[in-house]
Amino acid sequence: MSDTLTAIGLMSGTSLDGIDAAFLTTDGEDVIESGPALHVPYSRELKIWVRRAIKAALEGRDGATEIARAAGEITYAHAAAVETLLEQSGVKRKDVDVIGFHGQTILHRPARQPGEVGRTWQIGDGGALAEETRIDAVCDFRAADMAAGGEGAPFAPIYHRALVAALDPPAMGAVGVINLGGVANLTYVPKDALGVDLMAFDCGPGNGLIDEWVEMKTGEPMDKDGALASAGAVHEESLRMMLLAPYLRRKPPKSLDRYDFKLDPATRLSPEDGAATLTAFTAECVRRSEAFLPEPVERWIVCGGGRRNPAMMRALRARLEAPVKSAEDFGWRGDDLEAECFAYLAVRSLKKLPLSYPMTTRVPAPTRGGVLRRAPV
């Protein structure tokens, strides 16, 4: 196997906005070069099928036809995204070594007590994807971690470490990377960190609750440019109630399902005040997470869709002491980071390098993962 491989990473997050696809050239340790990327929005029909699959999974209907149908549609949509990326980039199929296929999460229930068996479920058929695209695919990244006693998330920390290691000028202290997707998660990267030095965990809701609120109140999919939150005021009593959630007091490593937090404390608020309060809740969850870190961070780097929300960025800057900047301020591609991550993890999987660590997922020891599906010869 060549030291350096070219991979395509595919990621579809809990926000259900669509598929991110990105090229990455890497040796599985350092990021050599990022390449072309694209975003393919989910069709309305596909969103409906995925939401039906999520509902069935949450209700324990594992064999539901909705799940099988959604899995097939998800696989087809990801294969189509690969074809579009190849066509637009001009990269030849034979020059791609592997696809990192995360799939669409429809259930994430990590073990909460010793002896419990957790479960994570990403739909999408890696074998069918490899067959359709005629490129080897690595899928099922999280299962080995959960089988070994980990929480199965988050999986981006080792990629965040590679990006932080390449900062120019280098970081002089610890760096905190905040990813604001459907859920907010944090990676703590000490100076000159190795994988085992990383610490990571889900802080609380990211954009998920806000998106749900805005869609319920206005029919729009998100609070575009933070306009609704900016027009409202934080309702302190509702915020106080939300902050009583037991999860926020749990010591990390810890991870969330997108649906672990509810809108109930905000239901009587106006659309504007609800958006402002939920935005403040996400930011305050990040602030409270600082208490779990071994040392203060030198800087915060925000990636994920939430970095595009000015109201969210203001809320974070008001609550965090170190400077808060977006991924692009450091030359990172904030929209493509998670897709790049699964390209990176696919290469690490091929090279039998660990994907998760004790202080990122609570797994007992550094753990490999991923399942290789070969393309037809």
Describe the protein:
This protein has 377 residues and is of the alpha/beta class. It has 2 domains: 5-153 and 336-373, ATPase, nucleotide binding domain (Nucleotidyltransferase, domain 5, 2-Layer Sandwich); 157-322, Nucleotidyltransferase, domain 5 (2-Layer Sandwich). The protein is built from 12 helices and 12 strands. The strands form 2 sheets. Strands 1, 2, 3, 4, 5, 6 and 12 form a 7-stranded mixed β-sheet that branches. A 5-stranded mixed β-sheet has the order 9-8-7-10-11, with helices on both faces. Strand 7 and strand 8 form a beta hairpin. Helix 1 (44-58) crosses helix 2 and helix 6 runs antiparallel to helix 9.
What attributes does this structure have?
alpha/beta, Nucleotidyltransferase, domain 5, 2 domains, seven-stranded mixed β-sheet, five-stranded mixed β-sheet, 12 helices, 21% strand
User: Could you say which structural class the secondary elements and strand pairing correspond to?
Assistant: alpha/beta
Q: Mean of the pLDDT scores?
A: 94
Q: Give the tally of β-strands.
A: 12
Q: Tell me the helix content.
A: 25-40%
| Level-2 CATH architecture of the largest domain | 2-Layer Sandwich
| Estimated radius of gyration | 20 Å
Number of helices: 12
CATH class of the largest domain: Alpha Beta
Q: Could you list the spans in which at least 5 consecutive residues all have pLDDT below 50?
A: none
Write a brief structural summary:
The protein has 377 residues and is α/β, with parallel strands linked by helices. The protein is 35% helix and 21% strand.
